[in-house]
Amino acid sequence: MKKWKSYFLAVIAAICMLWIFPEHTPAATNEAVISVEKGTLGQGYIIEPTAVTLQSGDTVKTVTERVLEANSRSALTTMNSTYGYYLQGISDPNRGAISIPAFVQQMITAKNLSVNVEDIKNAQYLNEFDYTPQSGWMYCVNNVYPEVGAASTKVSSGDVIRWQFTLVGQGQDLKEGDPSISASEKLNRDNLYKTMAYIHKTSELMNRSDIRAAYVSCINVLGNLTSKKSDLTDYGTLNLAAQNIGIISPVDFVVGESNTSAKVSYGTPASDITFPTSLIGQKNTISDTGINTINIWNVTWQCADYNPQKPGFYDFKPIFQLNEAKYILKTNASLPTYKVTVLKENGEEPDPVVPDRVDPKPVTPQEPTVSNVNLSVGRKTVNVAYAKKTLNLNIKAEKGASVSVKSANKKVVSIDKKKRAVICGTGKTEITVTASLKGKKTTVLKIPVSITPIRQSAPALKSSKSRQMTVSWKKDTRATGYQIMYSTDKKFRKNVKTVNIKKYKTTRCTVKKLARNKRYYVRLRSYKKVSGGKLYGSWSSMKNVKIKK
User: Fold this and answer.
1) Could you give phi then psi for residue 218, rounded to 5 degrees?
2) CA distance 195 to 27
3) How far apart are CA 166 and CA 134, in angstroms?
4) SS3 327
5) Radius of gyration of the chain from Cα atoms?
């Protein structure tokens, strides 16, 4: 009893120490951790903290693309003249209702912004300018927000990369956080994420119910921007597991108890059989790459069909008290077997087991395995602004295969004789590529297409009446309508308002109730109505006008 009390107090002390000293998480060399978060919408994660094995020359861009693909996600990207590689959106269909944290909503209100749940550029993606005029994707590495594009930021072993969706102030909501949380209660997610990623990738840990439950609890807390340290009540379980729980692989009998079998008299209950009291195994330690030999105590042996009144041969398997030990058994570990022979009443050996005769089953001829036709396309998606141009899909098919390419909406994209995509108009559609070959299964690939309106020229502005300005622009016959954005801030960070024009034939708009003698900055863009939302073109360059008194 004293030994058990000592062990119990040691475990409690270890858990308490986790909160006194910085967490030390077992991380494999040449690995980074990445997450994709939408906490500003009250929806936690698109991708939970995930461990990624690094490759030579990796940047935030290449790591992000690999993780998105591994999680069946895609990204909308552009090359920006200022930042280079720019992430516009990440696929996030069926998002559902959002729940913006109160402190983020207060920041939005303080900047005279409004939340527009209808302002969704593409319903399949979480995009820049969704919900507010200042929203978009930002990334940080080790809690530092680089001022360069993701393709210019190298990734090193141990880095923690976080993609986060901001709603206001170019990351003000992310960098400042909830002002009601004291500095001592703020979460340092970098250290926490390393533990979460390690636990998540280790199936032997996640298969243990107590650890899995603690993981789910911690993920729910970490995905909430208003969480505090005191909310993370289950983290001690995970950190202790990550540091101190070894994973046992093959198991065998301990030296000195090498007997693997026993013979017992007729009628001997299982409780009277002498079993080995310990085992020997291989522990893959977390802090040491070597393999250490360990003893596992408190082993019990069980055989479900053991019958002391039935002479025969019985196999007993070891049972571990895993939840009270520092070790867990790998799911595919080989277990030793202790063979017990129950003798007959006269002490003779039981009759040998004669396997029942089994008539061979008739062999059913199987269909030969048929493989699919090899087919690939260079463009997994098409997402470009309208222009009279032809796009090569870079189709590669198996030699001899017949390839057909079709567009679901030829008014958006048609297919020419060379199987290239010809842009015909704005909107969304899908290209289907089919490859057929005799003796093989037909392969079909789908390419989603989004053709956004062209970028508008800068608008013409005029203020000829008090507190009014007139905005005029070029007609876009391939658009449904237009969106005008104006502000007294040339960076459109505060006092931002929008006007939606519902008809493409309209090319002039008068904006009223403006501040006298103030300078207003204006830009606009075209949009095309599609199923599930709107496709927006890029913003025009900015123009400004001083409002008449």
Assistant:
1) -70, -40
2) 8
3) 8
4) strand
5) 33
Q: Is 194 left (phi over 0), alpha (psi -120 to 50) or beta?
A: alpha
The half-sphere exposure of 419 on its side-chain side, counting CA atoms within 13 A, is 16
Burial environment of residue 381 by CB neighbours within 10 A (0 to 12, 13 to 18, 19 or more): middle
Alpha helices in 111-182 (DSSP H): 172-176
Q: Kindly give, in sequence order, each residue whose CB lies less than 8 Å from that of residue 549, ignoring residues fewer than 6 positions away.
A: 466, 516, 517
CB 316 within 8 A of CB 236: no
Q: 3-state DSSP helix/strand/coil percent for the chain, to nearest 5? A: 20, 35, 50
Element (H, E) at 106: helix 102-110
Low-confidence ranges of the chain (pLDDT < 70): 1-29, 80-83, 118-120, 240, 243-250, 254-258, 278, 280-298, 320-333, 366-367
- The pLDDT tens digits of the residues spanning 480-536 come to 999 999 999 988 888 889 999 999 999 999 999 999 999 999 999 999 998 878 889
Q: Which helix (H) or strand (E) holds 534?
A: strand 533-536
Q: Can you say whether the dihedral through the CA atoms of 236, 237, 240, 241 is positive or negative?
A: negative
C-alpha neighbours within 13 Å on the C-beta side of residue 206: 11
DSSP for 197-230, please give it: HHHHH-HHHHTSHHHHHHHHHHHHHHT-TT--GG
Q: How far apart are CA 193 and CA 8, in angstroms?
A: 28
Token digits of residue 245 = 């729980």
Instruction: Select from 447, 436, 444, 439 the least CA-distant residue to 398.
Output: 436
- How many residues can be counted in the chain? 549
| The pLDDT of residue 429 | 92
Tokens 């270890």 belong to residue: 14
Identify each DSSP E strand in 266-392 by its residue range. Answer: 279-284, 291-296, 300-302, 312-319, 327-329, 338-342, 375-376, 382-385, 390-391
Q: Encoding tokens for residue 130? A: 């969704």
CA 4 to chain centre: 41
Quote the pTM value: 0.52
Q: Is 231 helix (H, G, I), strand (E, B) or coil?
A: helix
Please give the Cα distance from 464 to 282 (Å, whole number): 85
Cα dist from 222 to 230, 237, 536, whole Å: 12, 15, 33
In degrees and rounded to multiples of 5, residue 142 shows phi and psi of 55, 40
- Contact residues for 89 (Cβ-Cβ < 8 A; gap 6+): 75, 76, 121, 122, 125, 126, 127, 128, 137
CA 415 to each of CA 112, 419, 530: distance values in angstroms, whole numbers, following the listed order: 47, 6, 21
Pair of tokens at residue 19: 């909160």
